[in-house]
Amino acid sequence: MATHQQKQQFAFASRRMLLPLAVLLVIALAAKAEKHKFSVSQLVNAERQDTVNASFPGGEREQAKYLSLSINTDKHLKDSIYNRQGTVKIQFTVDETGNLKDFVPIEDGIPYITNLITQSLKEGPIWTPKKINGKPVLSTQQVLLKVSVDKWGIMRFEF
Predict the structure, then answer these.
(1) CA distance 72 to 6
(2) Which has the closest alpha carbon to 66: 146, 144, 121, 112?
(3) CA distances from 59 to 13, 39, 56, 118, 141 (A)
(4) How far apart are CA 136 and CA 82, in angstroms?
(5) In the chain, where do the E strands start and end?
(6) How many Cβ atoms sit within 10 Å of the Cβ of residue 11?
(7) More confident residue, 36 or 145
(8) pTM surpassing 0.90?
C-alpha cells in the first residue's frame, strides 16, 4: 500500500508532466493555425459566433427619445389615456435590411399607446439588423413602456 508521501510525489510528478504537454498542444495549435491562415483563438473557439444585436439608430437612448417625442406630440393622447396606468410591450421582427414588420402586442395595458408606439416604429427610421459573423439575419425585438401617474397627476413614461 502506498504511503501518503508516495502519493504526494506521484501527484507532483503528474503535474510536472502536464505543463510540457500543454505547451506542446499550444505549439501544435499555433502551427495548424499558421498553415491554414487563421488564429489560434478561432481554432479553439470554432463554435463561437460573433453576434451583434439589432438596434435603433443611435441606440436605446435615442429610441426612448424618439418614442417619447412621438407620445408627447400626439394631439389626442391626454384625452385618450387620462389617469391611465399600465404596461405596454410590443414585439416585432427586424429583417435583414433593418425594416420592421410583424408587430404583436404582448402586453396591451393601454391600447391607445400600443397603437401609437406601433405606428411610430413603423414610420420611424430603419434599424441596424442583427448580424451573426457579419451577416445580417432576422431577429425579434421588443419595446417595453411603463406608464404611471404620480400623486400630482403627472404621467410618467419609463422605457
Answers:
(1) 79
(2) 121
(3) 55, 32, 5, 18, 13
(4) 42
(5) 51-52, 86-94, 100-108, 130-132, 135-137, 139-149, 155-158
(6) 10
(7) 145
(8) no
Under a CB-based contact definition with an 8 Å cutoff, are residues 50 and 133 in contact? yes
By CB neighbour count within 10 A (0-12 exposed, 13-18 middle, 19+ buried), where does 67 fall?
A: buried
- Residue range 129-145: average pLDDT? 94
145: cell is 413602456
Question: Reduced to 3 states, what is the DSSP secondary structure of residue 152?
Answer: coil
Q: DSSP readout, 52-75?
A: E--B-TT-HHHHHHHHHHHHHT-T
Q: Which residue has the cell 444585436?
A: 53
Q: Which pLDDT tens digit goes with each residue over 44-95?
A: 555 567 889 999 999 999 999 998 888 877 777 666 666 578 899 999 999 9
Dihedral sign for Cα atoms in the order 121, 126, 128, 134: positive
| Cell numbers linked to 44 | 479553439
